[in-house]
Amino acid sequence: MDQISSFVVPSEWGTQKIFKNLFVVSLGFLFIFTAFQALSNLQSSINCDAGLGVASLATIYGTFILSCMFIPAVIIRYMGLKWTLVISMCCYALYTVANYSPSWATLIPASALVGLAAGPLWTSMSTYVTMLGIRYAMIKDERTEDIIARFFGFFFLFFQTSQVIGNLISSLVFGSEENTNINDTHVNDFTCGAQDCSTETTEENVTTYCNPPEKNLTNILLTVYLVCGITGICIVVIFLQKLERNEDKSEEETCGLFLATLKLMQNIYIVLIIPFSVYAGLQKAFISAEFTKSYVTCTVGVGWVGYVMICYGITSALFSPFWGSLAKVTGRFVIFTTGTIIFGILIVVLLTWAPKVDQLWVMFVSTALWGVAGAAWETQLNALYGSLFHNNQQAAFSNYRLWESVGFTLAFSYSNFLCVWTKLTILMAVLGIGFIGYVILETNERRLRKEPSQTDKHEQSTKL
Questions:
Q1: CB burial readout 311-341, b (16+ within 10 A) else e
Q2: Which of 56, 70, 223, 360 sits at a 20 to 30 Å CA gap from 244?
Q3: What's the pLDDT score for residue 227?
């Protein structure tokens, strides 16, 4: 298999060095996203005044779209994969700093900076992990697709563990506040769950919940998160090794990655999995912003957000390597189908369930199952893009993150204007459309695999 990339794993690297660098990049992301993911989960609660928190998230993923299109090619071309990761991580740490004094003048610019950094961060990470997988598959003479899926499963074990650690930290800090006492919540003053609406209404009790925690507790939390971010940056700077540049990849080709990203959008496979990619962003935005505010904070207080989201982090972390390994046995279709069914059931439950203080267990179960399905999505979508477009990885991963960020941006943009039940309906619609497109893609892929004589025509068959 002819793998073409701007970077290659040095030929002297053995399996031990490959795993060492996979561990380092995974550990770096664990520390950076321990701060960022937990802080994102809390934005709709700690910065709820005038919708600032949700607006900051919308800004992040709005600029993420532009970042995926324009920035990764330039930054990676001149900085390389390692230093692209370092610079991008520094921008995430600055976002934590901006939350010390949140306002439209501080948080929004910092959010834009994170969005611009996110494209290079995820594109360089995905390329780095994919190249490690390709090299390992060559050494072990195993299927590249299986190894890439396994490596992303390992990476997302660490990445999703950041949810556990970050949310545990927030729970311990905010746990000293009286809003962790279920009896002190104001459930009678607010309509929670699917009927929570941000739009003005004539019904007296239908209103958006906003009761931020004490500022001194928030500052303590931010300090811990800032230390985590700086630690992640130091780990990558000190221990991550550079990949070699591919001399066979011309400068013109490398500088033309932006055009390659646009050109790849004409590929029928990209078109078919766009809804799946958009849904990946929509579902993450919902669980981190809507669920935490309208189901958890609204019902039992912000002090419980961390504890509930820990379940999400634990199942995501545990099932990421599980799905990655299972793909070798069952194939990705079974995993995507399982994830789709779980998501569908959860959406129906959240549409019909009215959260109450004595049903806290439902929140824990819901987030746990959401993590199971989310892990399937995360590992298999990365592996899907990596295996389908192995000859054009940076453009492929830029496309993936671009469309995922479209989902994030849409979700956070309409967050302050739509009722929760409407947002859940949108989730269900995009999920259904995405699964249909994915089934068509897999059907075509299996047909091509059964017809070896068509291999040379594979590229032509995937063009519009």
A1: bbbbbbbbbbbbbbebbeeeebbebbbbbbe
A2: 70
A3: 96
